Amino acid sequence: MSGVTELYLTGDEAADHLLSTDDNALLIGMLLDQQVPMEKAFTGPWVIAERMGGTLDVAAIAASDEDEFVQLCSVPPAIHRFPGSMAKRVRQCCQVLVERYDGQAANVWRDQPTGAAVKAALARLPGFGADKAAIFTAVLGKRRGVTPPGWQEAAGYYGEPDTFRSVADIVDRDSLQRVRETKQQVKAAAKKSAAEVSG
């Protein structure tokens, strides 16, 4: 993929290179990005690839025995805090990619006429809700050059320029730290708001 910006999401050169050059890996990393540190989530695709012989093979994951794939993802170090449920979700997502998108994540967003259409297509994937679809729309716009009309509006809060709100804004160690701080602030504010409501 010529002209693609080298991503910095894990701090691990091999894992980041896979994310930079393989849209399937980037999509699966986004799927795993919940309830674990960002670096852990986005290292997951590389770990899966290594355990499958060095290649992240979406078709092989889709065709795999569910229990065997769960086991592959659960071997220490597990790919996620909840390896069983997340392995099943990854496998389901790969099945959709194979059945509807010729096994290529890029086909999910390629030729979509608007940012809203990109976000809607992402939101239909297993493991992707509206918020995750918005973040990934921002990732595609800011880091992959996928900028159909209205992409920033579709990405909402995450599409705004010069912010440090999500993985879409990480380009180096400093920005990764700033995004982590923003997430902590948002979480603290939400906790405080919830406490005030219940109080």
List the helices and strands and how they pair.
Blueprint: H1 13-21, H2 23-32, H3 38-51, H4 58-63, H5 66-74, H6 83-101, H7 106-109, H8 115-123, H9 130-143, H10 151-155, H11 173-198
- Strand percentage lies at under 5%
DSSP strand tally: 0
Q: Calculate the mean pLDDT score and round it.
A: 94
Instruction: Classify the helix fraction into a percent range.
Output: 55-70%
Q: What is the overall shape?
A: globular
Q: Report the C-alpha radius of gyration, rounded.
A: 17 Å
The topology string of helices and strands comes to HHHHHHHHHHH
Biggest sheet descriptor: none
Runs in which pLDDT lies below 50 for 5 or more consecutive residues are none
CATH first level: which class?
Mainly Alpha
Helical segment count? 11
Task: Find the CATH topology.
Answer: Endonuclease III, domain 1
Overall domain count: 1
CATH architecture: Orthogonal Bundle
Question: Mind telling me the CATH superfamily name?
Answer: Hypothetical protein, domain 2
Describe this structure in words.
The protein is an all-alpha fold and 199 residues long. 63% of the residues lie in helices and 0% in strands. The chain is built from eleven helices and no strands. The chain has one domain (13-162): Hypothetical protein, domain 2 (Endonuclease III, domain 1). The model has no long low-confidence stretch (mean pLDDT 94). The longest helix has 26 residues, at 173-198.
Task: Describe the structure concisely.
This protein has 199 residues and is mainly alpha-helical. It has one domain: Hypothetical protein, domain 2 (Endonuclease III, domain 1), CATH 1.10.340. Helices cover 63% and strands 0% of the residues.
